[in-house]
């Protein structure tokens, strides 16, 4: 995922279908210093971590 799209998703009021290693995640913040985003898995909201933007995938709804 590119940085611009990750930032759009992070700022969006609507929930997007974003996955990291096959798990659905919520993007909290995109880092300005490197190609990472602060995320947490929807089924484990207490466990925040930094994920490489290249490893985040957006699935279109349907």
TrEMBL record:
Listed InterPro entries: SASP_SspH (IPR012610)
Keyword terms of this UniProt record: Sporulation
Pfam families assigned: SspH
Subcellular location field: Spore core
Recorded GO CC terms: endospore-forming forespore
Domain of life: Bacteria
GO biological process: asexual sporulation; sporulation resulting in formation of a cellular spore
Coiled coil regions, renumbered to chain: none
Induction: Expressed only in the forespore compartment of sporulating cells.
Annotated family: Belongs to the SspH family.
HAMAP family attached to this UniProt entry: SspH
Protein name: Small, acid-soluble spore protein H
Organism in which the protein naturally occurs: Virgibacillus salinus
